[in-house]
Design goal:
Length: 235
């Protein structure tokens, strides 16, 4: 992961199942750009400002939302349904550095005038487990999605999703990293009971090839910062 003052470019391969009835499993291969400054950052699909006070970190950010589908990827059997476009959110978060990891709270609201919905997340990143050049970190979160958000994407009421994930970072020579991620979301009863949905659990696998460069002398990485976002459903 990047220390403050670092920048990186790379490619991201991602495969993620869709909860929509009749949907195929989408795959993507996209370039990724990362920057970690003292007060600002760019983490692929998320950019923001940050401030650290003792063991606390506070963020204000904009992040892409991957729910839904566009007109080029309408699931089979849902052609008569309105297109449910992805969008982007504005949000704020607070994260605490502790001896065992970094618990956080995050509030997000649609800023793209698509769903008009909101989401509140409570989660935690565990401390990294290191063995040689490999570092592994677990993640868990609860995400309360209000009725406006779920109605737009799933014709469903409000509910709470549960996510579990694991991120592994392997350090290679010459500043290269290989980062892998696995995550699983169990959607709320409200979403699972929607006529648009036939799969309650949404699974994703991500693989990132990343070449890092340093824009200034790197500083020790804060345990409260957490891994960067590569477009996982809970970041």
């Amino acid at each position: 992961m990047l220390a403050p003052g670092g920048a990186a470019v790379g490619y991201t391969w991602r495969e993620q199942s869709s909860p929509y009835r009749g949907a195929k499993t989408p795959r993507s291969l996209d370039p990724i750009y990362l920057y970690e400054g003292d007060y600002a950052y760019l983490h692929g699909t998320r950019a923001g400002l940050k401030a650290e006070v003792n063991t606390w970190r506070f963020d204000a950010f904009v992040a892409e939302r991957f729910d839904g589908y566009n007109k080029d990827r309408i699931p089979y059997g849902l052609e008569d349904q309105p297109v449910r476009e992805p969008g982007f959110d504005l949000g704020v978060s607070a994260r605490l550095r502790t001896a065992w990891g970094a618990p956080y709270v995050e509030l997000r609201r649609d800023a793209s005038h698509t769903s008009g919905g909101s989401e509140a997340r409570l989660g935690a990143w565990g401390n990294g487990w290191r063995r040689g050049k490999l570092e592994v970190r677990p993640h868990a979160s609860l995400a309360y999605r209000n009725a406006t958000l779920n109605r737009y994407y799933y014709d469903a009421g409000a509910g709470t999703d549960v996510e579990l994930g694991l991120t592994a970072d392997y350090y290679l020579a010459g500043g290269w990293h290989v980062i892998g991620g696995l995550s699983s979301i169990r959607h709320s009863n409200a979403i699972a009971s929607s006529a648009l949905v036939d799969q309650r659990t949404e699974n994703a696998a991500t693989l990132v090839w990343q070449a890092a460069d340093t824009l200034e002398t790197p500083k020790p990485r804060s345990a409260a910062s957490g891994p960067p976002s590569f477009g996982t459903p809970a970041d």
